[in-house]
From TrEMBL:
Identification of the protein by name: Uncharacterized protein
Source superkingdom: Bacteria
Species this chain originates from: Chitinophaga agrisoli
Amino acid sequence: MSLKLSFPAGSFANTGDAFSFIYPFLHFDIRFINASPSRQGAQLFDKAQVVELTKDLAVNNDDYLALHDGAVMEDLGDDNINFVVYRRKPGYQLELFSINAASPGSIDITSLINAAGSRGFTMAIYTDHQKSRWQSELFVHHYEEAGRPHAHLRKIEHPLFTKHYGPVIDLSQNPGHEIQTYSMCLAAAPEMWFGPGSWLYFDQERVRSFTGALAITAPAPDIVYVHLFDRSIPDYETPEILALQQQFRQWVDMDAVEAGLHDKLGPHIVAGTPVIETITFTDIIEVDDPEFGEDDE
């Protein structure tokens, strides 16, 4: 299961601070760790040198950190391993942990979320990204390669991609889409935590009063947990689930929040640009980086 935990820029003093924050909540045996751009390739993790490693990460202050429990360093990104990827994304004023909990108990999510509250996190979303992937897929040719119909989906012109790939899918019509935007990763996911930083944009009482969720609780001050639907169900794209996601988005004004956050992005960040990540230890590619827009113009 995939957990995205987002913070406003400046929530962590450096990469060492980010590592020391997340490390106590990881209950799996880390085998490989990597940071970029200071380190070339992954290194075997040595638990006995955590203090020295934290100091080294603080000095280098990389924008990227990855660790996992796979058998070889290339296993990062495999759904069957436990991993954590931390990224600092200045163009989005965002710091983001992408966490894969492949085995039960491998991540202490409850304690992690509570600790994140003291850092003012904006939002955390917990989902099965394989089941939700097509709600966030932008490119028509990916539908065609997978043999999925797309004629019923509205297409739009995209300022970065249309000249290379033709019209793209309008993600705004998909109530289950996930998107990274100013200071947070947004989605009407199966499970969501609205953090202290989210109340700059969402109305807390409105979130707490939604009646269609399985459960809504307040596990800590200024944190609201929404269990919208069961993340273990086999299909997230049934009419019932999509309707529920749409109802929730409308109730909490998520579309308006998303649009307002997009307006805060810089001129080279395009609203609606998908997050396409190649998670490896040797090459980190994200088409939503501001540099992509600059080079493409």
